[in-house]
Amino acid sequence: MLWIITQNKQSLVNVKEVTVKGKNIEGIIGSASLDEWSKALGKYESKERALEILNEIFTKVEESNGTSVTFTMPKK
Fold first, then answer.
1. What is the structure's pLDDT at 24?
2. What is the 3-state secondary structure (H, E, C) of 1-59?
3. CA distance 53 to 4
4. Which pLDDT does position 22 carry in this prediction?
5. Cα–Cα distance for residue pair 66/11, rounded to 1 Å
6. What is the predicted pLDDT for the residue at 46?
7. What is the structure's pLDDT at 36?
8. What distances in angstroms separate CA 20 from CA 26, 28, 30, 38, 67, one per listed residue?
């Protein structure tokens, strides 16, 4: 289970998948049939920075050994 606090610190979101779309990072929070619901988790100065943060999330998940993970999206 992955819990992420959004960049603006307004939401704590249980996400199933994290995706980089340009400078934005989105979390998939639900799906049914052909529909998916996503939430913006953060927006950064470049796609490269967004990918760095995605890698930080991956590292934290990898180190968790199957336990719940929490991650706070960085301001910048």
1. 98
2. CEEEECCCCCCEEEECEEEEECCEEEEEEEEECCEEEEEEEEECCCHHHHHHHHHHHHH
3. 12
4. 97
5. 23
6. 98
7. 80
8. 6, 11, 17, 12, 24
Domain boundaries, the chain: 2-65
Beta 69-72 vs 2-5: how paired, if at all? Answer: parallel
Residues of the chain with pLDDT under 70: none
Biggest CA-to-CA distance, the chain: 35
CA 21 vs. chain centroid, Å, equals 11
Q: What amino acid occupies position 56?
A: E
Cα separation, 3 vs 76, whole angstroms: 19
Q: What is the pTM of this model?
A: 0.87
